[in-house]
Every structure is written in C-alpha cells, then in structure tokens.
Predict the 3D structure of the following.
Amino acid sequence: QVQPVESGGGLVQAGGSLRLSCAASGSIFSANIMAWYRQAPGKQRQLVGRIFSGGTTTYLTSVKGRFTISRDNAKNTLYLQMSSLKPEDTAVYYCNTDPIQWSWGQGTQVTVSS
C-alpha cells in the first residue's frame, strides 16, 4: 500500500507563499490523477485541487488563481505552490490519488497568521 510523504508546510503571514511537496514511491504515480486535500480543525477533509496525468488541473473555487499544482512523474513527486495565503487556508494538507486509493500520510501543517 502506497503511503505518501508530505512536506513543506509551516507558519506564514497572510499574503505569503509556501510550496508543498508530496513524495510517493511506485511507478503507479504517473498513471493516477493526483490531488491535494486539506483538513482544517473541526472540519471535514476537502479536495483542494487535482492534476491529471497530462497536466490539466482543476481547483477548489476559493484557491483558484492562488494555488498551482504540478507533478514530476520522473521523481514521483507532486507539488502545491500556494501564494496570497489567507488565514482560512490554515489546515493540514495531504496528497492522494483521486479517487482516493492510497493510505493517508501524516500530512503537513500550514498555518497562516493574520
């Protein structure tokens, strides 16, 4: 069972930027639709955005224009570039396939201060 490893989170002021990474072993990476999810305290996990194998992306309306997902299939790595961060972006961020096929990793905490 694949378990991704997320990294790159941290504490940032509103308006700042962060770049998250997700590493996952296995050649199945390139065959999947990959996605970033997030879970804020007291809320359900939500899909932030996805990237298809060909590079097409879709995003949650509230992050569109601020977040960018990319992937490096050769490195089995998924990225989430986040800019113009807002306090409401505070959450633990996870990567997984879409639909979900893998175990959940530990995620990476993103905290945006106002």
